[in-house]
Amino acid sequence: MMKIHRLTIIILGLSLFVACKQQNKKTVDAVLDRWYGKEILFPEKSVFTRLLTDTTIFDYSKFNMKILIYADTTECMGCKLQLNRWKEFMISVESATSDTIPFLFFIYPKDIEEMRYLIQSENFDYPVCVDSDDLLNKLNKFSSDVSFLLDENNHVIVAGNPILDLETRDLYIEKIAGKKAFNNPIKTTVNTEQTIFDLGTFDKTDIKEVFVKIRNTGNNPLVIFDVNTSCGCITTSFDKQPVNPGNNIVVKLKIIPNETGFLSKVVKISGNFDKPIVINVQGNITDL
Known about the structure:
By secondary structure, this protein is α+β, with helices and mostly antiparallel strands. It has six helices and 15 strands. It folds into two domains: about 25-175, Glutaredoxin, CATH 3.40.30.10; about 190-285, Immunoglobulins (Immunoglobulin-like), CATH 2.60.40.10.
């Protein structure tokens, strides 16, 4: 009976994943239509800190482009921020242009101490503005968390979160680099031995790791573009180098529980192959 229950959850999860992907395209277009060309207003005085300990001078007014990230973390802080994924995206931006593109993190925190712990535990030493009074949101009337690519006059060029959507990420890189992010990449084929990982029952203090082995079964090098977790409780790591035909690449998923209950998460791995690889991670998190 338990197997049937879990299978039902997996099927529902995959169905929702497909539906969400279709809806996401409409949402991305709607967000861009709403914000494109609009000027973003900033508070007169914004204090930035590193690791939420020392304040730092961060003059972002003279750059040709800048990336703004606003997050209301009054709900799930780790899920909202996904700092490791932002670090990966920063590397992509740095490799796409010789210009410096500042990232402006404005965080409206539920708990500053929790935020400090999260930032320090992930060693996220990029400047962050703790917007305790939610001034940025009040000035611009954001309806939710937002991410924008802005021009030198703070007008929106691209709207959408580049760490959650591959097409949005490509659009950021295209605008920053002045060329297509992936201009008709040479494709290959892949095979994955296992796509469903059952972690069983484990304590919420335990950290679990899952290793997804992907084999390049085609005739061209394999490149992983993105691993979308949609949840801050899962971090990812993989080799960024191309994988030759006949060889394997391993994508490591680290699961760091933040609450008890049944775990069912979907991870999407995208690369120079036709369809994203969908991985389902499940388990039962308890407070032993």
